[in-house]
TrEMBL record:
ATP binds at residues 148-155. InterPro entries: FtsK/SpoIIIE/SftA (IPR050206), FtsK_dom (IPR002543), P-loop_NTPase (IPR027417). Coiled coil: none annotated. Residues 373-392 are annotated as: Disordered. Transmembrane segments: none annotated. Residues 130-318 form the FtsK domain. This is FtsK domain-containing protein. One of its GO terms (molecular function) is ATP binding. It comes from the Bacteria. Keywords: ATP-binding, Nucleotide-binding.
Length: 392
């Protein structure tokens, strides 16, 4: 009798023996199988096959061969299941083979501080990625397209960029800010000698007209001296045209008497993005509505670097990044994808007006211009911080 009782007891005991943890490698393979990430070949199913893996500092990269015929979109679509299944952050790259990098750490909120400033450069910290702080260099890639749903951090990001550029080069940075939300975000900075702010489509058209006139004069000067890129000239000045809410300048969205001003603005922006880079104009174009109507093809085609915050629809990600992904970002303000040659998941540093005024107060004299305090403890390009561009 006792023996009979012992058998179920043993079976129950077996259920409580701790199971060996399943490795990420095995989990990923199961996820490929369970999500049908495969092709059918005869009677067999062929999944991506692990070839090698590499342990890095805080991450592991897995390299898979991919069966011919398994499309990029099929593979990309399994990424959320991998992140959920492993409960870790992961990134994918497809370049003949599949590189899947799984990170031990997660991105979290962080705050801007003036140690991020790199005096004399045009580099700005766009955010922290799994591998450290990423800098965007506006002398290597002059323009930037930014977008995402309302309240996810576009203006905060623009302000972090603006603050860095101004404090990097207070004597040489000039800003033309088209704050199409009635000047509520940037008009407060118009007291600075480096900053001009337009608050509606009429003022925007006037400001852009001024910029285009200057551009034509500069073009002539560059031609006569045989110059083609400001970076190779002794000129230190750079002019930043920042558009916060490009949709308000779209003739396909704006109607009535404003339409012709929007038409002019669009053509000026397209000229700035097309010709401006070489002669020192930098366009940062931001919109809450990433559609064909608000991001004109001619502007987009000339902008290589992109930042997308969460977008409500996958098509928005296509408009901003030329690929899907931003619609699946977690709903966290400041979380974004920064794309130059490849995508980087980032958390943008948080900054507010009070911090900006305080930093500017400490570093600019009463004319708002020359630096009085430079407190940079860190060497440019040191440590993990990097500009992920190879363009020169
Ligand atoms: N990088 C960040 N880190 C932490 N919180 C942030 C960050 N960026 C934005 N937020 C929070 O989200 C709020 C909205 O940000 P922001 O005004 O930049 O959004 P937006 O995308 O410009 O919205 P809208 O399209 O309506 O203008 C901020 O007031 C702040 O509370
Ligand atoms: Mg905004």
């Amino acid at each position: 009798m006792l023996e009979w009782l012992a058998i179920p007891a043993l079976a129950m005991g077996a259920a409580f023996i701790p199971k060996k943890p399943v490795s990420d490698e095995v989990k990923i393979q199961r996820i490929f199988e369970n999500t049908n990430t495969c092709i059918k070949f005869g009677d067999s199913l062929q999944h991506p096959k692990l070839r090698t893996k590499k342990n890095g500092d805080g991450y592991v990269s897995y390299f898979y061969s991919v069966p011919l015929g398994l499309g990029e979109s099929n593979i990309q679509s399994v990424l959320p299941a991998i992140k959920d299944g492993l409960n870790k952050e992961a990134e994918m790259e497809l370049d003949g083979f599949l590189k899947l990098t799984v990170y031990e750490t997660k991105l979290s909120n962080w705050t801007y501080d003036d140690k991020l400033i790199r005096p004399g450069t045009w580099e700005v910290p766009v955010g922290v990625s799994y591998q450290g702080i990423l800098y965007h260099d506006f002398d290597k890639l002059p323009h930037m397209l930014m977008g995402g749903a309302t309240r996810f951090g576009k203006t905060v990001c623009l302000k972090a960029i603006f603050n860095t550029l101004l404090l990097n080069n207070p004597d040489d940075a000039e800003f033309y800010i088209l704050d199409m939300k009635a000047g509520l975000e940037f008009y407060k900075f118009s007291g600075l000698p480096q900053v001009k702010v337009a608050c509606d489509v009429y003022e925007a058209a006037e400001m852009l007209n001024e910029i285009v006139e200057q551009l034509k004069g500069d073009e002539k000067m560059f031609r006569s001296r045989g110059w083609n890129n400001i970076v190779d000239t002794p000129i230190k000045k750079r002019k930043f045209v920042i558009v916060d809410e490009g949709a308000e300048l779209s003739p396909r969205i704006i109607g009535g008497s404003k339409k012709k001003y929007a038409e002019y603005s669009q053509s000026a922006l397209s000229e700035i993005s097309r010709i401006g880079g070489g002669i020192g104009l930098r366009l940062i174009y931001c919109t809450q509505y990433p559609t064909k109507e608000s991001v004109s093809m001619s502007v987009k085609m000339n902008i290589v670097s992109r930042i997308s915050f969460l977008v409500p629809e996958a098509i928005g990600s296509k408009v901003l990044l030329d690929e899907y992904g931003a619609e699946k970002l977690p709903a966290i303000p400041g979380r974004a994808i920064y794309k130059v040659e490849k995508k980087h998941f980032i958390q943008v540093p948080y900054i507010n007006d009070k911090m900006i005024f305080q930093m500017m107060g400490e570093r600019l004299d009463e004319n708002g211009k020359n630096r009085t305090v430079v407190n940079d403890h860190r060497q440019a390009g040191s440590g993990e911080d990097q500009t992920p561009t190879t363009h020169t």
